[in-house]
Design goal:
The protein contains 14 helices and 12 strands. The chain is of the alpha/beta class. The protein has 2 domains: about 250 residues, 3-Layer(aba) Sandwich (Aspartate Aminotransferase, domain 2); about 120 residues, Aspartate Aminotransferase, domain 1. The strands form 3 sheets. A 7-stranded mixed sheet has the order 1-7-6-5-4-2-3, sandwiched between helices. β8 and β9 form a beta hairpin. α5 crosses α6. The chain is globular. The protein binds pyridoxal-5'-phosphate. Pyridoxal-5'-phosphate (PLP) binds next to α5.
Length: about 500
């Protein structure tokens, strides 16, 4: 299966690079600014806006700074490896988008500028909204949410406001989801005070319609679900599900994080959903690596528009205006309008792909996933979740290394760690709760070449073989990286963790 693939040697650079603050030398400078041309010019800055104490910055020369960051970049695999990180739909982030969003016209905007000076940006937001409406059938999108989980939270707030306006919030206190929906759905619902009903999977790989009917009642406030689910299994009865929930007076929310496999094939509104969420930092080609920055684009039907967070974008006589949200709205879920550079990148992706390109990308992602499925099935120690299912998996598939672990003692974490020794990014295992032992979930997507996918499969096959031949080698991986296994103890201890230099100084350098 993997004869034609030559695995490359990979060795991360080891620099023992110190924390930048410790490279500081008093008086050393990268840039020496000229004195103010007009004496006293700086005193024009109001006293209240001036710092009382100079910021604690490292004092370094420019070459020192460049060398430091070069070393750091060499110590990581970076995001240009092959990243088949399932449920996250990793895509290439076009460099031209970075160049455009770094231009002053975007980077120097301030959200408090008068909207008359923001017309170009507002037009892009409006056009992106129109494109997402076309893809979902919804009537209106807002981009304020800072990610997928935030958009789910936005939805539970809208759900509260909607039922409160109808005088039903006291009685409608249950939200239904499924065990393989993303945990942010039950988590945000619980945060907003709802009780959660989680439907388990049945033999067909998803919860049955009968189970849903048994759960639905006059207490149902909403259904929150992603489909395909976290394992790539698509529930074909979804339109029927929506009918059942709506007949009982509940709202239906489609968490469209796994949109890649169904883009242009289905539209949430056509299936009857009241609201949906797209992740611009997954499906729409905006960067996801490093955990953000992100945008959860939230779309809804006309009936829910009064509850949206303001400010809302309107178009009057050709001009775009920012109007405060309505009195019935939920208020803000984050500051201002959301992350404009991410919206511009997503807009560029939609326009560059076009309707045909988006439909083709969806087909390719399903094809690539099923191509992988055939190949992975031949690897000793790997099994597919729900192997009896005959329906095609969509854009990703959940696999298990249970057999490998039983036969060699090597776990999915060990395999994940060893794969990076061959220069591919670590795979995603599964969201909690794990219902498949030793899970892993690759997602091939539409952008990786066949050579990349074959390379990734060859690496997995090699590591599984190593597990049988030399399990200790895999259990102690990674070996070719600057850092091997982290001692996660300090990460669990608030007295030790430090994400800023100030916290580090206080917790580790100040005598207690
Ligand atoms: C189905 C699904 N919904 C929601 C989320 C949460 O999105 P975010 O990480 O942007 O908050 C994820 C993240 O992987 C997801 O897979």
């Amino acid at each position: 299966m993997t004869e034609s693939v030559t695995l490359r040697r990979y060795q991360g650079a080891v620099w023992d690079e110190p924390v930048v603050m410790t490279l500081s030398r008093p008086g050393r400078r990268g840039v020496v600014f000229p004195a103010p041309r007009v004496p006293g010019e700086l005193s024009a800055i109001p006293t209240a806006m001036r710092r009382a104490v100079a910021p604690e910055l490292p004092e370094m020369s420019e070459p020192d700074v460049l060398r430091h960051y070069l070393h750091l970049s060499q110590q990581t695999l970076g995001m240009m490896g092959i990243s088949l990180f399932g449920t996250c739909t990793m895509k290439y982030n076009a460099r031209v988008n970075e160049a455009i969003t770094a231009r002053d016209e975007v980077a120097q905007l301030h959200p408090r500028q008068p909207d008359t000076t923001l017309q170009g940006s507002l037009q892009i937001m409006h056009d992106l909204d129109l494109n997402l409406r076309a893809l979902s059938g919804m009537d209106r999108f807002v981009f304020q949410a800072a990610g997928g989980a935030d958009a789910a939270f936005l939805h539970v707030c809208v759900t509260r406001a909607y039922h409160a306006a109808r005088g039903e919030l006291e009685t409608r206190d249950e939200i239904i989801t499924s065990i393989q929906s993303h945990p942010c759905n039950p988590a945000t619902a619980a945060t907003a005070g709802f009780k959660i009903i989680t439907l388990p999977l049945e033999a067909n790989g998803y919860p049955s319609l009968e189970a849903l009917k048994a759960a639905v009642s006059p207490r149902t406030a909403a259904l929150m679900i992603n489909n395909p689910d976290d394992m790539g299994i698509y529930n074909p009865d979804i339109a029927e599900w929506v009918k059942v929930v709506k007949a009982a007076g509940g709202l239906c929310f489609y968490d469209h994080a796994n949109f890649n496999g169904v883009m242009s094939k289905i539209r949430a509104r056509d299936l009857g959903f009241d609201a949906c969420m797209f992740m611009l930092h997954k499906t729409f080609g905006a960067p996801k690596g490093g955990g953000g920055p992100a945008v959860g684009a939230y779309g809804c039907s006309e009936a829910l528009v009064p509850y949206l967070p303001g400010p809302l974008l309107t178009q009057e006589e050709g001009a775009f205006r920012l109007q405060p949200g309505s009195d019935s709205g939920i208020g803000r879920v984050r500051e201002f309008l959301g992350n404009l550079p991410q919206m511009i990148k997503a807009y560029a992706w939609v326009r560059a792909m076009g309707a045909d390109g988006i439909a083709e990308a969806s087909d390719l992602s399903v094809l690539a996933n099923n191509y992988m499925g055939r190949k992975l099935a031949q690897i000793r120690g790997v099994t597919c979740s729900h192997p009896h299912l005959t329906a095609w998996r969509l854009e990703m598939t959940r696999y298990s290394l249970e057999v490998l672990e039983r036969e060699t003692g090597v776990s999915a974490y060990d395999v994940q760690n060893r794969m990076v020794d061959y220069g591919v990014d670590a795979f995603w295992l599964a969201h909690e709760p794990w219902i498949i032992p030793q899970p892993f979930t690759p997602e091939a997507g539409e952008m990786w070449s066949k050579e990349d996918i074959d390379y990734w499969i060859a690496v997995l096959a090699k590591v599984c073989q190593e597990a049988y031949d030399d399990p200790q080698l895999v259990r102690t991986a990674p070996h070719n990286h600057v850092i091997g296994r982290l001692n996660s103890g300090p990460l669990e201890d608030p007295a030790q963790w430090a994400t800023t230099w100030r916290a580090y100084t206080r917790k580790h350098l100040t005598p207690q």
